[in-house]
Each structure stands twice: as C-alpha cells, then as structure tokens.
Amino acid sequence: MEKTLPVALITGVGPGTGAAMARRFARGGYAVAMLARSRDRLVALEQELEHARGYPCDVTGEAQLDATIDKVRADLGAPKVLIHNAVGGAFGTFLEIEPEVLNRNFQINTMALLHLARRLAPAMVEAGEGAIITSGNTSALRGKPRFAGFAPTKAAQRILAEAIARDLGPKGVHVAYVLIDAVIDLEWTRKMLPNAADEFFIKPAAIAEEVWHVVHQERCAWSFNVEVRPFGEAW
C-alpha cells in the first residue's frame, strides 16, 4: 500500500462502531489501521475496504502496542488520526466485582489511551496537525451501583483525555471525547432488548459520522466534550 494517504489508527474494531468508523474514514480518503484482539474480526473488513489493514493487538500489552505501531508506520505511515474505541466493561456492584476486573478495564480504557497518545502525539505535534478521539459513554460522568467495575475507568479516561487536550491543543493537535449516551444498535443489543423501538438505538454509522465531523472541525471551533444520543433518550 502506497504511503500517500493520511492514516487513521482505530482501536477496538469490531462489528459495530469500530467497523463503522473504519468504513467512514476509508470512504473519506484515509488509509485505516484497524486494531482488534482477534484477527477474525478484521479479515472481512480488509477485503471490503481497499485502503484498510488489520492488526491483531491487545492494547493492554505495551510490547504488542509498540510492535503494532511500528508495523503501521512501516506499512502506511505515521497516523494523523488516533481513535481509541477499544473498551473494557463489566457489570456488578463494588462488592460483587473482582478487583482484577476493574484493573483490566482501567488498562484498556485509560492506560491504553495514555500509551497510544504518548507514542503517536509527538509526530502530530511535529507536523502541526492531528486528532486524538476517544469514544466514551455516560459512565464517564456518573457512578451507578452496578457500574463499579467500569465507570471509574471511563471517568479517568475522560479526565486523561482532557489533560491531553489542554496540552496538545495549543500545539495544533485536536483532542476530543465523544460521549455516547445510548444503546448502540448491534445484533446482541437487539437480542437483549427485543421489544425496543428502532429509535431507541443509536446507529454505529451515525456515531462514525459524528467522529468524522469532530476530527475535521475548523481550528477556530474545536470541541472537546461531544455528546450524542437518540432524540428520544431520557437524560
């Protein structure tokens, strides 16, 4: 693949939001580096998208992350856009969860963002442009009882993203937190909520479109906190 296209690196590329973002950025003229733990998730997208390449990677492993980023740079070039969409979640009260679950989710949601930003931001700063986007949800704003193994990691993720944004913004790199206040329209969520109306769900393609918009905002009107929800969502 020729290194003539801008590069977008997307973590957590599964059948929903990650795949939708890969499609949107490929359609928009980017070479897309798609990261997921399972190679199987990536094969079909590689075949579908001309300028997309899959990289099996567990973002909690620094050695894997370093090797993957080196491979992306060699194959496609230095990423101009980073979208951290990988997510670790769990349900349970603070008495029910195992502490290891909270730590694992922290490694995926927060520490992986730190490692990715530390490795990719310097080239963006040198170029004087770039974008780092993190996909979040309302757990980043509130700690409900059964989200004790998840919400603390998303809150930390949001605050880390804000700290990075305040540092990199004046250097020409746009950092934003896209908060998804909705149930995403996926096969498993439809099965979990078989009686829910279509308008109850948020479409992965709509999320991808908003992320595309945020990445390409004019410098005079950058957003950091971006919230998206279906029109009927109670908030």
Structural topology:
Elements: E1 7-10, H1 17-27, E2 31-36, H2 40-48, E3 52-56, H3 62-75, E4 81-84, H4 99-127, E5 131-137, H5 151-168, E6 174-180, E7 183-184, H6 187-192, E8 201-202, H7 204-215, E9 225-228
Parallel strand pairs: 1-2, 1-4, 2-3, 4-5, 5-6, 6-9, 7-8
Helix pairs in contact: 1-7, 3-4, 4-5
List keywords for this structure.
single chain; 235 residues; alpha/beta; Rossmann fold; two-stranded parallel ribbon; 7 helices; 17% strand
Quick description:
With 235 residues, this protein is an alpha/beta fold. Helix content is 42%, strand content 17%.
Describe the structure.
It contains seven helices and nine strands. Helix 5 (151-168) links the parallel strand 5 and strand 6. Helix 1 crosses helix 7, helix 3 packs parallel to helix 4 and helix 4 (99-127) packs parallel to helix 5 (151-168). With 235 residues, it is α/β, with parallel strands linked by helices. The chain has a single domain (7-226), classed as NAD(P)-binding Rossmann-like Domain (Rossmann fold). The protein has a seven-stranded parallel beta sheet, with helices on both faces. The protein has a two-stranded parallel ribbon with strand order 7-8. It has helices at 17-27, 40-48, 62-75, 99-127, 151-168, 187-192, 204-215, and strands spanning 7-10, 31-36, 52-56, 81-84, 131-137, 174-180, 183-184, 201-202, 225-228.
Question: What would you call the shape?
Answer: globular
**Over the alpha carbons, how many angstroms does the gyration radius reach?**
17 Å
CATH topology: Rossmann fold
CATH homologous superfamily (4th level) name: NAD(P)-binding Rossmann-like Domain
Distance between the termini: 45 Å
